[in-house]
Specification:
Strand content: 35-45%
Largest sheet: 7 strands, antiparallel
Oligomer: single chain
Shape: globular
Mean pLDDT: 85
Number of strands: 10
Length: about 210
């Protein structure tokens, strides 16, 4: 069944995007930092996180900046593997707007072996805003030791479904990629004052 999406306002409506139905605003149940929006699947464990961060200016490429953001997201001593990284295009922004995406896994061995797949997007806003928008889709993967007792929900991919070197991403990761593509298609800034500056026409490049 095709995923259904709904129009969602972020940061008080300053940003809008279409997110999958069945994802709830975490700020309704716990405190979330002012620079962050978190949406959690109500029937599984996948989450979608929007972070507004300081513009990373000390690295020469956008992909390196995104890997730097990745290192800030995962916790040591987790083992991180980046499987792919590419440039990206946000449809509601001018084609020249720097953006990129990557697919990675983060594995921890304590207390039990657990792997999380991360699909990241980076949207780079230069002067006068000097901000980065980092979007993370977190997809927990059932560890082999617990897969026999875990739900078979598509939100929880089992190790047998996933073999990245062979291109077997699993249903949950494939679904996460559709979320990423919808975010690329629909994310739009409605109020540039969110970033402390005003940029005329910066959000109308896709129309």
């Amino acid at each position: 069944m095709a995923t259904k999406f709904k129009h969602t306002e972020l940061f008080g409506g300053a940003i809008v995007v279409d997110l999958p139905e069945g994802y709830a605003d975490v700020s309704n149940i716990r405190q979330v930092p002012d620079n962050q929006e978190v949406y959690l699947c109500t029937t599984g464990f996948t989450s979608i996180i929007f972070d507004i961060t300081e513009h990373v200016s000390h690295l020469p490429t956008d992909e390196e900046a995104l890997k730097y953001q990745l290192s800030d997201i995962v916790e040591a001593p987790d083992q991180v593997k980046v499987w792919s990284s590419n440039s990206a295009r946000f449809s509601k922004f001018p084609p020249s707007t720097p953006a990129c995406t990557l697919l990675a896994t983060s594995t921890t061995t304590s207390p039990t072996p657990t792997t999380t797949t991360l699909i990241l997007l980076l949207l780079r806003l230069g002067p006068p805003h000097n901000a980065d928008i980092v979007i993370t889709i977190n997809i927990p993967t059932t560890s082999s030791s617990s897969s026999s007792t875990s739900s078979s929900s598509s939100q929880h991919a089992t190790p047998e479904e996933i073999n990245f070197p062979e291109g077997k991403l699993g249903n949950a990761v494939e679904e996460g990629i559709t979320f990423r593509d919808e975010i690329l298609r629909t994310l739009e800034v409605r109020d540039w004052g969110l970033f402390g500056g005003v940029g005329e026409g910066e959000g109308d490049g896709g129309r």
